[in-house]
């Protein structure tokens, strides 16, 4: 990934007010470039810092065998497994994905003690349509009956109990990214079967340490896709600075790893693992009066003016000195006598 780089210039100056006649200041008509006018507008001066990043799936998770035996089913690469779906089968017995943050650390049966893992199991069975009550932390006869009904739907033995090796709790759906085994393979407990990721993509990038202030969690950003589409996002996490080899191969540089969360996965349109450009916006000046940069005319090394049509005593053009503020995106903030929203200023004709 390429570190971010900023292209923002600040300038300021003050001066008095003066007017010169068009005849005194303008060159011969034969050498005067074609000109037109634009209006002074009001708004925040916003600069953009660009960073190159890459779309990545949100996390990785190894799916390992909960018991030994023959692999009789694994999903294909790219498949998505949702809550209630089959992660794999060993000796034809399915292992099921359930929603939850706590791992399955013990078997579920009527003689077990209370626990939040029971509530988690019941919440899933309720979501699947097999548990009618309000999930709690007790494994009761109602829980066992719901388990048997669920087991019947899976086509497995209806014991009313659940082995921890037949469940995997996660807080989101999984996407199969790479297989480590195949159907027919003999595996032992703990053998990696495949690698999985989240189904949502984020953007990972490295920012220059000098741009660290732009990457604040929750800050809105715009992500430009290689398809020409923009997707809105927010800064998710900002990690501690790390060293990486410098781009020119001489020494190292310090970068800040940043994760960008996207507000719309659908906007990606199936795009995956692609290089994107992230635009960080920063406000340089609020409620500024702005004109295009090429409206500025240098009077000396420190003083600028803008040209106003019809303001000279003879009705021609007049130069009005202005104080110059922030520059951004081809525009500049100005202030001066007679400068207000809607004032026409002269610019070269494009």
Automatic annotation (TrEMBL):
Main location: other
Residues annotated as signal peptide: 1-18
Gene3D superfamilies: PGBD-like superfamily/PGBD
Sorted UniProt keywords: Coiled coil, Signal
Span of domain Peptidoglycan binding-like: 114-167
Domain of life from the UniProt record: Bacteria
Location of the protein in the cell: Cell envelope
PANTHER family named in the record: EFFLUX SYSTEM COMPONENT YKNX-RELATED, UPF0194 MEMBRANE PROTEIN YBHG
Name assigned to this protein: Peptidoglycan-binding protein
